[in-house]
Amino acid sequence: IRLTAEGRYDLTVNLQSRAGEVLYVPMPFDGTTGRPTAGIQSALKAIVAALLAAEGSLLLHCSGVEVDNKAVLFVGPSGAGKSTICVMFGEQAVINDELIAIKIIDGQLMAHATPFSGTANTPRRQRHLPIGLATKLTKSPVNTATPLSVAGTLPLLVQCIAMPVGTSTLEKQMFSTVQTVATSLPWITLGATLNATENRRFVGQCLASVCS
Fold first, then answer.
1. Could you tell me if 162 and 45 are in contact, meaning their C-beta atoms sit under 8 angstroms apart?
2. How confident is the model at residue 36 (pLDDT cuts 50, 70, 90)?
3. Cα angle value 22/59/72 (rounded, 5°)
4. What counts of helices (H) and strands (E) characterise the chain?
5. Which of 23-32, 125-134, 136-145 shows the highest mean pLDDT?
6. Residues of the chain with pLDDT > 70: what percent?
7. Of 34, 171, 205, 209, which residue is the least packed, with the fewest Cβ within 10 Å?
8. Are 28 and 19 spatial neighbours (Cβ–Cβ below 8 Å)?
9. Is 91:123 a contact under the CB 8 Å cutoff?
10. pTM over 0.70
11. Distances (CA, A) of 118 to 34, 38, 58
């Protein structure tokens, strides 16, 4: 397949051999952020998204933490507070603060850490956990939780998946997986405050209520 992002990269990858070639455009800030070259990192994300899609999985723009041996996902656009709420749970609880791989293993939806992080100094861990709760993260003066319907979940997921555009077969496979994620997980709209202690307590209560 061929994946491109104008002004950033042009890559080809063989999904069978998992080998390919990438041409990238250097950026003025490359080498100054503590991260890999921007064009290469973008291409790597596209490759991972394509490989995951080929096996019926997703690369989702979200953060996630471990609570009581379950993964709690925080989904939302940039600025929703995904990285901030991860910090509130402490480094050891963080699965990832930017991109998480969602895989179906033995009929169970699992959250897998990825090497892509929104914070350059966040440790990369190899870990995976069953997903206990998925949330649409919003900012709020008080903690709130309201059920999120499938009709509300689907457009949120479509907005936040890393999709290898231009490969119709993979796109169909990804949308099938999106439907599974939307219908098989408990979803809520979570209103999170700036109080770390209250957020941790409230998220734990929400998880307990859906797992009981």
1. yes
2. low
3. 150
4. 5, 11
5. 136-145
6. 82
7. 34
8. no
9. yes
10. yes
11. 12, 13, 18
